[in-house]
Amino acid sequence: MSAWFIILTIGLSWLGAVCVWLAGDNRPRAQHALAVCFSLAAGAAALALIPNTADKAVISLDAGSVFGLFTFVADGLGVFLAVVATVIGSLAVIFSVEYMRGEAQLGRYYALVLLFIGSMAGLVLTGSLFLMFVFWEMTALCSYALISFYNDDPKAVRGGIKALIITQFGGIGLLAGTLAAYVYLGDYQINTLLAKAQTLPGGVLSFIAFAFLFAAMAKSAQVPFHTWLPDAMEAPTPVSALIHAATMVNAGVYLLARFYPAFAEVAGWKTAVLLIGLITALLAALTAVVATDLKRVLAYSTVSQLGYMVYAIGVGGVFASQFHLFSHAVFKALLFLGAGAVIHATGTRDMRQMGGLRKQMPVVSVVFIIGAAALAGLPILNGFWSKELILEGGLENGPIWAYGGMVLGAGITAYYTLRMVSLVFFGQPQGKKQVHDAGSPMKTALIPLAFGTLTTWLLVGLFGSWLQATLPYHELHTMTIGEMLLRIASEPATWLALGVIALGIAAWLLRGRLAGLAPALSGFGRAAANGFGAETLNRGAVALTQRAAAALQVTQTGQLNWNVLGIMAALVVVLLVLAGAA
Amino acid sequence: MTTEFTIIAGGVLCLLGVGLYGLLTVRNLFQVIIALQILVKGAIIALVAAGKISGQINLGQSLAVTVIVADTIVAVIGLALAVQVKRLTGSLDVKNLATLRR
What we know:
Chain A is mostly helical and 582 residues long. Chain A has 26 helices and two strands. Chain A is 75% helix and 2% strand. In chain A, helix 1 packs antiparallel against helix 2 (28-49), helix 4 (76-99) packs parallel to helix 15 and helix 14 runs antiparallel to helix 19 (400-425).
């Protein structure tokens, strides 16, 4: 049964991509309808996988001795992320019906979106490291093409290429780790790696662990690879929602969670993960404080929340990190699609030119404020529960200074969230344009997400026991809803975190009186706007590459005879190596 | 076996050597294609001989036939490109094709 649902989840998305493409750009209504139907069908297939989870491979194709078995495993973790990708992805597609109305080249847009959703589902459902790498690269390629969708805008093209290059670095890490595992285990199966990790030589296991961490950092936009995500904001807003909530950035956290049982014992790995999460969460939150572009604030908030998930894995809280991923996917999709509605109506992304939209866009403002409250971690929204779980796990199993940093990050999150909401929806209207509330396709996408933001935390017990039942290698600290309520309400840590969040809110409300601090913070603001030196690092890498290329240019004569000589020399080297090995 | 093997090996090495020497030295596109053909003929003979020596005659010969097919396609496309190069640049010198170099 589940084999069919896996095929449908991935296949329907890809089939939809082909159909939308074939429908042709002169029939936009058919394209919208096809895209919505196929994405909803793929979402339904993914949901149907939930009662059919299994910890064994349900599809196994023999792809020959080089590639091993192509397996697909419908276990809790994979199905959960496939559901997130397809269901939230289909809401983004529904939203696109209104947002992309009248745009040219809808075929390319929808085909790439559906390919993206299908690839993400494949990435999380496959049980073979080799296929995982293939799907990993497919998501990178789709994200590149979608970020550069407006390909007559140089900024969009630059953002897309940046995303491609930086995520390729991660791809190299994944490939290196995969090949190392294959050399020592003779098998690409993820479950083989999880089962036999402790039999590998220590150095090899460390290499795989850190290579995969590197891959996750690039994909999930952790410092210092976080710079691609804000630049990816040139994409159409539904695509931003897709990248930030449903696909792409979740892949890195998924990778860490999936292989946590194998790597937890590697010396220094957990500390490295914890540190990366902590630094990312804090720096991204600080950068969000000074950003003025609505989508960029949301982008930095995603980076920061991903930092929380990575930190949770670093302190052993795989369940907490996945639970926060779940909450984050729902509320961040809501925030991005809400922001899309605002941008669609006002025609600008600069928050300083918005303001007072609460009266003109009542529905959007209500759902956006719900999402923002979840991002800030206010009770009783889903973001509150999952963030508290992470923080309590951090206090229990991690160093106290890291915990302190994360609590501080929660306060900063509350500050920039309130700043964003009040700049956009409150105060005096700054724009001259008459704006109107979102239309029905946008509302169809926004309202289920708002409902989800209010209620998904109720699923904690079911979610936990479901994950636990199908993940034989993970030790999850799951709990029922009653236990979670009791624990969070009784822990003083919760009240401390809430106090810091309240301080963050108070800091924004009292910003007039705190204005005296502004000069002291201006240098910091400049550093934050520069991405804390990460952009300098990027520029250095680019300059180094170009200089190396210029230096190596003499070897490229472009003449056939020299090229033949090069090929022959390589052949001789290969023969010598083979002779040496034999 | 030994005399036969020596003769074949010598012939193969001669053909490979002539082909490689041609690829390394000539600049006329037609001569390049001819050199490539000589090289591949050496490889085909080597395949057949290897099949005979290892006792897998069928495998060696079927590989040889496959190489003949692939090699023919290479020659056809190469010659077609050579005609286009002649039309475009007015000469068959491969040096004129190094336009990617700044």
